[in-house]
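LAB NOTEBOOK - FOLDING QUEUE
OPERATOR: T.R.
BATCH SIZE: 2
PURPOSE: Compare the predicted structure-token outputs for two unrelated chains run back to back under identical settings.
PRIORITY: normal
REVIEWER: second-year student, initials M.K.

ITEM 1
FIELD SEQUENCE / FIELD STRUCTURE:
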Amino acid sequence: MLTFVGLGLYDERSITVEGQQALRTADRAYAEFYTSRLVGTTVADLEAYHGVEIEVRDRAGVERHPEDVLEVAETEDVAFLTAGDTMISTTHVDLRLRAHERGIETRVIHGVTAQTATSALTGLQNYRFGKATTLPFPYAHGADGLPASVTETIDDNRADGLHTVVYLDIKVDDEAASRRRGEGDTEDEYMTADVGGKLLAEAYPDLVGVVVARAGSPDPLIAAGTMSELAEGDFGDPLHLLVIPGECHLLEADALVELAGADRDALDIA
């Protein structure tokens, strides 16, 4: 049995009760934190809190060489842990399909994801979000300006009156990224909302964005402003993401003004 467990958004306590039970009764536990991670805890704290040993896999160990994980799951109960909700990344869907090819039974135990937390914290209705996009570090895509994947997503959603979640790039123990930066050692790197605002301000200086910082933590921060204004802000520790509101219903506009300090006159209100 291979059970995929979403750990939630912030620390070792963010997991659901069902996920906790599955983790604590598993014979083996693996995790990956290159797609996202819990910034409010460490692997050691996760192990101590849940009374388990966790083997952390890098990208290659999950995407290209998962055979040993699958071999164990053929005869033992294995928990595979990820931050957020476990099936948001195609990496995990691929691993589940590989398990099915081997005849391994799988199970999914969901966790809170940034998408739903963002809707809840900003007051923007979940059904009014369009396609999401990821804003990469400039060195990661190697081209001048914003990638077309970002601008086309924002423009298409705005044309349809929909909100856009802009995930900000994460590089966790990424050797290739380290070489592109010209550094000798690998290190974790998280794009912050001010950096994201600065990059987006190149094309959208007056467009309103909403920062969502540390969703799931005891002190989440929600702050609205134009991209030029956000570029000058300080929003504290990661993880951060940005939301670009589309056409807002009156209640959504009220929420952005009250919860994020948005300028009502700058919003597109239906």
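ITEM 2
FIELD SEQUENCE / FIELD STRUCTURE:
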Amino acid sequence: MPSSRPAAAPSGVVTEYLLLGLAFDRLEEGFVDAYTGDPTLRAAVQNAPAPHPSRLADTARGLQTDLPGDLDPGRAAFIAAHLRALECSARKFAGEEIGFVEEVRAYFDVDIAPGDPATYRDAHAELAVALDVPGATAESLTAAYTAYRRAEEIPPERVDDCVRAFSGALRERVRAVYPLPDSEIVDFEVVADKPWSGFNYYLGGYRSRVAINGDLTQHMSSLPQLIAHEAYPGHHTEHCRKEQLLVGGGQQEQTIFLVNTPQCLMAEGLADHALGAIIGPDWGIWAAEIYADLGLRFDGRRAQRVGRATAGLLGVRQDAARMLHDQHTDADTAAEFLQRWLLAPPERAHQMLRFLTSPLWRAYISTYVEGYRLLQQWLDSAAPAIAGAHRTTRFGRLLDEPLIPASLRAELGATP
């Protein structure tokens, strides 16, 4: 369903915003997560002298004063939020010391607070019940959870079959609810030596390349979540629908997707709710049927119970990031914190630290934590009688509209 309308020429402030965003890729390759706009803009940035971070910060501040220009209030608010994030990134690239909480606020327009250990203890108690070891000690709970995770490991030689089965099933379900262009496609590949478990590279023209980290063991309970997150109805689906509806409608600012901006919090929150949005709360029962067709046994009901319990541990990694960057805790202490609350083996905890200490990605953990929380609150703000249909419609808005955290908070504030 490609748009038949010619792409509208971007306004002056939009063009400057795109040029500014593209310039950050000269400072840190990968800062531009995706760009599907006018290639002459990218060429102009690549052929220009290397930008200085302080100049980029000045440009971001200056562009904020130019708003709204000829843009409607919604588009102006979207660009303004992203300019504030880019200004902070430029200051950091210039060597300015910025606290972690302030950094997260500037990038993602959310405020964060420490998690409550009581919440984590309650999650452990619920997890012990889900694993049939109620009242377990810390050591016995860790042993039970480790055994559970080991039992649901996918044999490496079967991962490709499982990826194909779930991507096909989810694609069919998504296309029936949130129509996609006939030409859309996702190519999956296995990569190594990455700080993340999966990554969507949106290539434009309704195509994505999804990389799966082969260094990490794939588990039956998490693989459906991973495919939904990266592809259907997560990142790939969102990129396709926004390219078709927003870019096709002239919103050229949507041709660029930049790391450490409000776009990321919205996208990761959306993607983490993706499986539940398209399958519902009984995703484990649905997944068990697909695994059975592949000759693999999977206790979907237990996986759902375990998932509900571990949801209470959502803030642990964000707490670890605060420990590292605001409290200047050493890496070993942060790893012990992750091992204690997430019941993670040492090697997994240190893999998490790679992400939490990456200069580019260190604040990004908050997109998963605060993005999930904010979007859950917004998705749940419906009358119980119509909650199912309402959530489907609301999730569609996340796919199709240029929403930012402030948009959701404004709607939540207006909810009776």
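REVIEWER COMMENT (ITEM 2): The first strand starts at residue 32 and ends at 35.
FOLLOW-UP: none requested
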